[in-house]
Write a structure and sequence with these properties.
Blueprint (H helix, E strand, L loop, with lengths): L1 H28 L1 E15 L1 H12 L3 E5 L1 E15 L3 E19 L6 E19 L5 E20 L19 H7 L3 E15 L2 E12 L11 E14 L1
Antiparallel strand pairs: 1-3, 1-9, 2-4, 3-4, 4-5, 5-6, 6-7, 7-8, 8-9
């Protein structure tokens, strides 16, 4: 009987110590590591874009401005500075940013042409968490660095004689595109996320907007990056 009592006390002591230690560890870390992927829809914004499209529309029979859809993916680390309330979240992802146009040249037909760049996107986000369970909403904002990996144009060379492409008429090859696009951009990323607790981590859905604050082209004033992204992924909590 006494032995059973001692065993029970020892078990309770070990259990309480382990629980306290686990709680302390959880409070100390507040760390999540996650991956996600989805789709982005990009364009350019700025007064220069409006002027360019006005001149282009006057030189062709038909004109339509479009966006550029593409796949995006990456990973992130979230650290909760104030548990369940405020976190810092650095990220690294792949992002394509550019624009597509559809025109009907004066010599007939219909043509799509586009200009875009692939970037390594590195935002540093400040995240405000609303501590609801099992679905936890959050909002975030922060600066983002875009490092250009590759730039391309499609169907520009064929149109240079039949449409007023302005400074874009020089983009007759990928090499020419790389020469007039700046190698990096600094912008801002903001958005909303929903985290759904699942197992030792959580599923997440993320809607965000990233825009550049500097000119994309050497010769095109006030052309700036712009992209909306819808993402889904999973994060492991520690």
């Amino acid at each position: 009987m006494m032995r059973s009592s001692y065993c029970l006390k020892a078990f309770l002591l070990i259990f309480s110590t382990t629980s306290a230690f686990s709680q302390i560890q959880q409070e100390r870390l507040g760390l999540s590591i996650g991956v996600r992927s989805g789709f982005s829809v990009s364009s350019y914004w700025g007064n220069g874009v409006s002027s360019f499209e006005k001149d282009l529309s006057l030189s062709v029979n038909g004109f339509k401005s479009g966006v550029l859809p593409f796949f995006t993916s990456g990973f992130f680390v979230q650290y909760e500075i104030i548990p369940d309330f405020f976190a810092i979240q650095p990220e690294i992802s792949f992002l394509r940013s550019g624009k597509r146009w559809e025109i009907s040249p004066v010599d007939g037909g219909k043509t799509n042409f586009q200009v875009y760049s692939d970037y390594l996107h590195i935002p540093l986000l400040a995240k405000l968490i609303i501590p609801f369970v099992p679905v936890t909403p959050s909002a975030y904002v922060g600066p983002s660095l875009l490092l250009r990996l590759k730039s391309r144009s499609e169907s520009v060379a064929e149109l240079s004689e039949t449409a007023d492409l302005g400074f874009l008429r020089e983009l007759t090859s990928d090499k020419a595109v790389s020469k007039i696009i700046y190698p990096l951009d600094l912008g801002l990323t903001t958005g909303f996320a929903l985290d759904i607790i699942a197992g030792t981590g959580r599923f997440l859905i993320d809607l965000r907007y990233t825009f550049g604050m500097f000119d994309v082209f050497h010769g095109g004033k006030d052309f700036r990056n712009s992209a909306f992204s819808l993402l889904a992924g999973y994060a492991w909590s520690y």
